[in-house]
Amino acid sequence: MNKKAKELLIKFFSGSFGSFVLLFLRGLPVLPGIGPVIPHYWVGAGFVISGGIATLIWQAGDDAPFRSFIFGLTWPALIAALTR
Fold first, then answer.
1. How many other C-beta atoms lie within 10 A of the C-beta of residue 23?
2. What's this model's pTM, rounded to 2 decimal places?
């Protein structure tokens, strides 16, 4: 595995882990329109994966895994601020 792919994987997993910690500590409420239709663990998995993808996009060029972890913790607040 080359160095660039390894850096991207570390960044993805750091952001995903941050999102997982947030999900673990807070949980996700039932979402309107998809609450009873999609099981909670699928919504949670999508949340964690999207946290890793958002970290890859927004933290491009930053090689510090700790900042990627912090971004994974805070990206839902960023999205909420942008979409209101």
1. 17
2. 0.69
Q: Is the backbone of residue 62 left (phi > 0), alpha (psi -120 to 50) or beta? A: beta
C-alpha span between 24 and 52 (Å, rounded): 16
Highest mean pLDDT, choosing among 9-13, 26-30, 34-38, 76-80: 9-13
Amino acid identity of residue 76, one-letter, is P
Q: In this structure, what token pair is assigned to residue 63?
A: 């090689």
Q: Which of 29, 67, 62, 32 is nearest to 47 (CA)?
A: 29
Residue 42 pLDDT exceeds 80 = no
- What is the amino acid identity at position 75? W
Q: What does the block give as tokens for 76?
A: 């839902």
